[in-house]
Each structure stands twice: as C-alpha cells, then as structure tokens.
UniProtKB/TrEMBL annotation:
<dbReference type="InterPro" id="IPR038377">
    <property type="entry name" value="Na/Glc_symporter_sf"/>
</dbReference>
<protein>
    <submittedName>
        <fullName>Uncharacterized protein</fullName>
    </submittedName>
</protein>
<keyword id="KW-0812">Transmembrane</keyword>
<keyword id="KW-0472">Membrane</keyword>
<feature type="transmembrane region" description="Helical">
    <location>
        <begin position="6"/>
        <end position="26"/>
    </location>
</feature>
<keyword id="KW-1133">Transmembrane helix</keyword>
<feature type="transmembrane region" description="Helical">
    <location>
        <begin position="106"/>
        <end position="128"/>
    </location>
</feature>
<keyword id="KW-0813">Transport</keyword>
<keyword id="KW-1003">Cell membrane</keyword>
<keyword id="KW-0739">Sodium transport</keyword>
<keyword id="KW-0915">Sodium</keyword>
<dbReference type="GO" id="GO:0006814">
    <property type="term" value="P:sodium ion transport"/>
</dbReference>
<dbReference type="GO" id="GO:0015293">
    <property type="term" value="F:symporter activity"/>
</dbReference>
<dbReference type="InterPro" id="IPR051163">
    <property type="entry name" value="Sodium:Solute_Symporter_SSF"/>
</dbReference>
<keyword id="KW-0406">Ion transport</keyword>
<dbReference type="GO" id="GO:0005886">
    <property type="term" value="C:plasma membrane"/>
</dbReference>
<feature type="transmembrane region" description="Helical">
    <location>
        <begin position="33"/>
        <end position="52"/>
    </location>
</feature>
Length: 171
C-alpha cells in the first residue's frame, strides 16, 4: 500500500506536466513546475496523512449473543432479523472536515495529482501571462495543425517558416 501511494504521488503530477506541455501552448515551464510542485506536495500530504490516520473499519459481531435463532429447524421460518441493525449507527464512524480527505483511496492519488497539477498550471499561466511562442513541433498535432484549435491557443504557437523553406535551408 505504501508503494502504491508513493507511485501515485509521483505519477499524477509528472504525467500532468507532460500533458500540459503538449496540449496547452500558453503554459510555460515555470507554470508547469508550480502546478507540479503544489500537486506533489498536496498528494504527499494526503497520502501520508491517510497512512498515519487510518480510517475506522467496522468489525461485525462474531458472537451468537443476541441471536434469536436457537434451533436449526427455525431457519426456515425467520420472521425477525438475525442481527439487530438498530444497535449500530454507521454515520457515527464517518469523519468530518479535513480528516475526511484522508479516507480517499490511494488508488485515486494519481488522478487527484494529475487534475490538481493541470488546474494549478492553467491558473498560474493566466495569472503570470506567458508571452513566449511555442514551436508547433513541440505540440500535439491535434493542437498545432487543427482548424478547430481555439484562437487563444493559436496566438501562442510559432508556426515558423513553410516546410519548403525549411528543406531548402538544410545542408
């Protein structure tokens, strides 16, 4: 479980950094690093907090005390519950507030780190306003060459020279 938690901490933000770099031309390196560092710190906090503050696991009773069936022949005619559910309140074992976040499964840490890193990278790029152009060769072809690419993206893409001009300048 610890190994999977550590893999989740590192994998989500790392994949998000590559995804941001390939699909969002207006996000520069410093914004991707900001998103990556914050998402890694947050998923690390959740992971180790969950390992330290283990969730409550209810254990069902294993005794026959309180069982209303005393004869094996009575099993065919059960009119009342074998276990009295009024003796247990499941809501009493749920955490509230910040400690409820520790109950998130370690399997979700990768997804959480991925999404958080992308959101923070995009938000920080809007705040810090990147002015650099990105070569279309570094972007995914669906972003660089598509007629459906939004104008917001196109103004950050450096389309450079035509392919014919590039070939003639090679040695």
């Amino acid at each position: 479980m610890v190994t999977l938690a550590l893999v989740g901490i590192a994998t989500g933000p790392s994949v998000a950094a590559f995804t941001v770099g390939i699909f969002f031309p207006f996000v520069d390196g410093r914004c991707a690093v900001i998103g990556n560092v914050i998402a890694t710190a947050f998923t690390t906090w959740l992971s180790f907090g969950g390992l330290i503050n283990k969730p409550y696991v209810y254990s069902y009773p294993v005794t026959t005390a309180g069982c209303n069936i005393t004869d094996e022949n009575l099993l065919a005619d059960i009119s009342s519950p074998v276990y009295d559910p009024s003796t247990w309140n499941p809501q009493s074992h749920y955490r509230e507030g910040v400690s409820a976040m520790y109950d998130i499964s370690y399997a979700w840490l990768t997804t959480e780190g991925f999404l958080l890193s992308i959101i923070i990278s995009l938000t920080s790029s809007l705040i810090l306003k990147n002015r650099n152009l990105v070569s279309k060769d570094l972007l995914a072809s669906c972003v660089a060459n598509s007629s459906c690419t939004p104008q917001l993206f196109k103004k950050y893409i450096d389309y450079g020279k035509d392919e014919d001009d590039r070939d003639s300048t090679k040695l």
